[in-house]
Amino acid sequence: MTLKNGPIIQFVDFSYAYSGTSSSALKSVDLLVEKGTFVGFTGPTGAGKTTLIKAINGIIPHFEGGKLTGRILVRGKDTLTMTTGQIARIIGTVFDDPEAQIVCLDVEQELAFGLENFGIPPEEMEERITSALAMVGISHLRRRSTQSLSGGQKQRLAIAAAIALLPEVLVLDEPTSELDPLGSEEVFKVLKQLNNDHGITVLIAEQKTELLARYCDNLVVLNQGIIAVQGHPKDVFMNKDIIKMGVGLPQITELALRLEDRARELPLTLEEGIIYCQDYLSRHRR
Ligand SMILES: Nc1ncnc2c1ncn2[C@@H]1O[C@H](COP(=O)(O)OP(=O)(O)OP(=O)(O)O)[C@@H](O)[C@H]1O
């Protein structure tokens, strides 16, 4: 397969079992992520999404141990030969539980902490902190104590702390789990903006298929540790197998499938849904 911008992350026949378990959480995963793309990972609970994220940023196997075969290459280099510090220079991570990620007492310190660890000069830190907070819409919280933030605000802070480090790749494990629909949409908008304007490759594990449908260039469905389906969201949601796996379709897509089993082209977004409904009504008007 030829990629316009070349691969940034590559899984080569990668399998992994957590220590003390006999069955593999990921099985023979082959995956090529093109630099600059926005890739979503979804699948039922226990499918291996978190495991895949932890394998990309080196937590697996560097911290988790376990047994693996195959390779993961980041910018062409095997993660086994890199330290987690070296991987973190390329890959920023946001977990679903911001509590586990936030270590400082106030918002500004939280961002400064990562920048100091990366040896960013003080004169550059100010600009990075200001722009990262603005990008996720929490500039007004700069002086607040991290303990006083709501769950959603903490999630935004965790994202700001990751993007302040200007990673080439951002991996996020359900970063909108604490957010309402509007807040979730805003996070995806921010990620898309980072992807478009700064060329940051975004890899996001997420259950909210409406958002994945709207924002991803490529969608990967995991099931029982294997890549069951992957491709453009439109093609992935056309595949009926994913419903059997328990992957929820975007509501508008589900509506179209209920109206006609063989819809010509499935709508994925509200805008496409409106066009689809107008077309459906004109075809079924007596
Ligand atoms: N630390 C661990 N030790 C042993 N087994 C684990 C560990 N973490 C996850 N697993 C197992 O690995 C498999 C994949 O889990 P993983 O958390 O990657 O799935 P997931 O798709 O992220 O699920 P969810 O949507 O529920 O977060 C599951 O069978 C899970 O029970």
UniProtKB/TrEMBL annotation:
<dbReference type="InterPro" id="IPR015856">
    <property type="entry name" value="ABC_transpr_CbiO/EcfA_su"/>
</dbReference>
<dbReference type="GO" id="GO:0042626">
    <property type="term" value="F:ATPase-coupled transmembrane transporter activity"/>
</dbReference>
<feature type="domain" description="ABC transporter">
    <location>
        <begin position="9"/>
        <end position="249"/>
    </location>
</feature>
<dbReference type="InterPro" id="IPR003593">
    <property type="entry name" value="AAA+_ATPase"/>
</dbReference>
<dbReference type="InterPro" id="IPR003439">
    <property type="entry name" value="ABC_transporter-like_ATP-bd"/>
</dbReference>
<protein>
    <submittedName>
        <fullName>ABC transporter ATP-binding protein</fullName>
    </submittedName>
</protein>
<dbReference type="Pfam" id="PF00005">
    <property type="entry name" value="ABC_tran"/>
</dbReference>
<dbReference type="InterPro" id="IPR050095">
    <property type="entry name" value="ECF_ABC_transporter_ATP-bd"/>
</dbReference>
<dbReference type="InterPro" id="IPR027417">
    <property type="entry name" value="P-loop_NTPase"/>
</dbReference>
<keyword id="KW-0067">ATP-binding</keyword>
<keyword id="KW-0813">Transport</keyword>
<dbReference type="GO" id="GO:0043190">
    <property type="term" value="C:ATP-binding cassette (ABC) transporter complex"/>
</dbReference>
<keyword id="KW-0547">Nucleotide-binding</keyword>
<comment type="similarity">
    <text>Belongs to the ABC transporter superfamily.</text>
</comment>
<dbReference type="InterPro" id="IPR017871">
    <property type="entry name" value="ABC_transporter-like_CS"/>
</dbReference>
<dbReference type="GO" id="GO:0005524">
    <property type="term" value="F:ATP binding"/>
</dbReference>
<keyword id="KW-0472">Membrane</keyword>
<keyword id="KW-1278">Translocase</keyword>
<keyword id="KW-1003">Cell membrane</keyword>
<dbReference type="GO" id="GO:0016887">
    <property type="term" value="F:ATP hydrolysis activity"/>
</dbReference>
